[in-house]
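Supplementary Text 2. Reproducibility record for the structural model of the 560-residue chain.

All settings were left at their defaults, and a single model was retained for analysis rather than an ensemble. We include the record here because the model underlies the residue-level annotations in Supplementary Table 4.
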Amino acid sequence: MTTTAPETKLGGAVDYLDQRTGVGKAVKEFARKVFPDHWSFLLGEIALYSFVVLLISGGFLTMFFVPSMGLITYPEDSLPVAMQGVEMSEAFASTLHLSFEVRGGLLMRQIHHWAALLFMASIVTHMMRVFFTGAFRKPRELNWVVGFTLMILGLLAGFSGYSLPDDVLSGNGLRIADGVAKSIPIIGAYASYILFGGEFPGEHIIPRLFTVHILLIPALILAFVGLHLLMVVVHKHTQYPGGGRSDKNVVGFPLFPVYVAKAGGFFFVVFGVLALMGSTLAINNVWNYGPYDPSPVSAGAQPDWYMLFLEGALRLMPGWEWVIGGFTIPINILVPGVVIPGILFTALALYPFIEARVSGDSGEHHVLDRPRNVPVRTGLGVALLTAFVILVLAGSNDLIATHFHMSINAITWTFRVLFFAGPVFGFWITKRICLSLQRKDRELVLHGHESGRIVRFDNGEYVEVHTPLTDQERWLRVGHHVYRPLEIEPAEDSRGVRRKGYASDKRWQRLSRFFYEDRVEPVTPAELAAAHSHGEHDALPGADERPLIENAPETDVRNH
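Retained model, structure tokens:
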């Protein structure tokens, strides 16, 4: 005998909730959302799940951490033995107590720290995927800015978090932050005074960082994550190019029940990996450093990886200082700590708008680019990553010197040269590779795959038999937009009057030429027909510009 009472109760509860909140309409709308299936889309999910783990583990740690810089003497009967009788802040003492006396405390600390590192790694990798595939194009420019803001908030969350234990390592990081703040002309001293509540280190920085770390930044991250996900739903998901995929559809699986089950399982995978890392891989053992003391500064004092590029920039900058009007401007701190990061971050945030301007493209895009088809964008991304890696290595120049028995001065000068030469070389070689891959695609479309079969005709001629591409393979190689440099109006109008805004248009045109002057045109139908008939397709006029495949995008998007 079966009963429907539980189902009736459940249905009544759902109906009660729906009538008062309208949740049924939202669930129905979300259930019909289709998401494409590709592993790279999991990078954003890893960031989200890492943040959930951060909230869970951080809530546990908050109950035991004491955000106070008041001095105490560590008890004689507490672990570790090396810290017994040492004068330290209550923040550092509570960190030791959490690690050695609270059951599961050290595990939670290490899970929290690894989750923070994974959170930043997944955000950066996710942004790289979005950048290289052009997922930031219209209508997602604002969502790119939201994601960029989340990255900045992640940096601030990480810095404020690993500064809380008040150990030697975190104290050195705060000392650097104080120096960078003071390097700003005119307002620097006031900024440092406001931040630390007086002279460094003061007595207020740990309580203030604690409030920022557990309240302000998490609230902002939650708000921006919600906005980010809302925009993903509103704009629909991007998808990789392929047959049947266009800017007007999404090919994939529905949210319910497929992706709900996948996402739920993947959350526990991420949680399990972080728990395994937290239980087996030691990290941030603050008792090895001791409480903060400004006098000991030794080799091996590096921040977490996502802040290491700033450390590297500070180490590479020569000790230049300018004295203007009796005021000393520490160029050696101001430029690497404020100016260069400010320029790079601003350019990164505005890049979607810059590319839209130089391409003249105002159409919506939901199908992603192949990185080879946008060589300048791909080259710029590789150049940025090259500079980042060089700065990260420069931030560890002392460890490289001690481990490999090398001169730290030679290492520093090598990285100084590489910082300027490496990104340029990375951009150049990446651009050439992308153009070469595009030419290879042209050859494949025109002639097909080499089969290794040689055929001899009756007249004695030998030819190699090529295997034609399938429609899917051909679509992938010809179904993309080709941008050309901007065309602008003449400098003077018909009456000989100089046109207003010509100088600005000229600058944008030069930038557009940098982006799109070197390009490889996709194969046209005429070229393909000539190649298949063994004709001289290079001699054909390029008048026939119809797409090779029905519904494929046009090659010229200037008038879209």
